[in-house]
Design brief:
The protein is an all-alpha fold. The chain folds into two domains: about 45 residues; about 110 residues, Winged helix-like DNA-binding domain superfamily/Winged helix DNA-binding domain (Arc Repressor Mutant, subunit A, Orthogonal Bundle), CATH 1.10.10. Helix content is about 65%, strand content about 0%. The chain contains nine helices and no strands. Helix 3 crosses helix 4 and helix 3 packs across helix 5. It comes from Bifidobacterium actinocoloniiforme DSM 22766. This is Putative host cell surface-exposed lipoprotein. InterPro entries: Ltp-like_HTH, WH-like_DNA-bd_sf. Keywords: Lipoprotein. Pfam families: Lipoprotein_Ltp.
Length: about 200
């Protein structure tokens, strides 16, 4: 006669051991997050302390330099300056210059003689127009003085001192240098020098 097997018995741990294991797990679950935060706070505190004490690491300057290097620099755009259009020369200025050239070539006048002719009651050019004409005329005034001196000689004026006075008077208005050149071509140097020394 066989004996039937007895039903399996479940081993139940003692109540105190179950309670201790449960408390240990709950304690670990409560302690782990707080330990992690403590470690993080300690690390952050150490990093902050090292940054504050270090002169090499300059966070703001690093950030600023990085930002500056990434920002493209704009080249200044060229400014277009509009030059004012030149004022057209009045026709009267050109006419005065043409007449001045005629006076220098045909009448062999001095510079001041040309000015007197242009501003006379006959021509009636302004001082500005006459000045423009004189500045643009091509004339050899010493040669003009020599031409007039020869004319005066042909009219009977042979005295070099008189010639000097006539060339530089209010009628012809040659400069002393122009008159001296004319006399140098007509008389010996000693005579011209004596006249010039008397004038001084």
């Amino acid at each position: 006669m066989s004996i039937p097997p007895s039903p399996p018995t479940t081993q139940v741990p003692p109540a105190p051991e179950i309670e201790a294991a449960t408390l240990e797990k709950e304690g670990k679950s409560h302690l782990r997050p707080s330990r992690v935060w403590k470690i993080l706070l300690i690390i952050l505190a150490l990093v902050g302390f090292l940054i504050a004490q270090s002169d090499v690491v300059n966070i703001p300057s690093i950030i600023a330099s990085a930002t500056h290097s990434q920002t493209p620099t704009k080249s200044p755009s060229p400014k277009h300056t509009h030059k004012p259009a030149p004022t057209p020369l009045p026709a009267s200025y050109r006419e005065a210059a043409i007449k001045a050239q005629q006076y220098a070539d045909s009448m062999h006048l001095s510079e001041e003689g040309i000015r007197d002719q242009l501003t006379s009651k006959r021509d009636k050019y302004s001082q500005d127009e006459a000045q423009y004409a004189i500045e643009h005329v091509q004339a050899n005034y010493p040669e003009n003085a020599l031409f007039i001196a020869k004319q005066l000689q042909s009219q009977g004026v042979h005295d070099p001192e008189v010639l000097m006075k006539r060339l530089t008077n209010a009628h012809y208005k040659f400069t002393p240098a122009d008159a001296e050149y004319a006399l140098d071509q007509l008389f010996p140097k000693e005579i011209v020098d004596s006249i010039l020394s008397e004038d001084h």
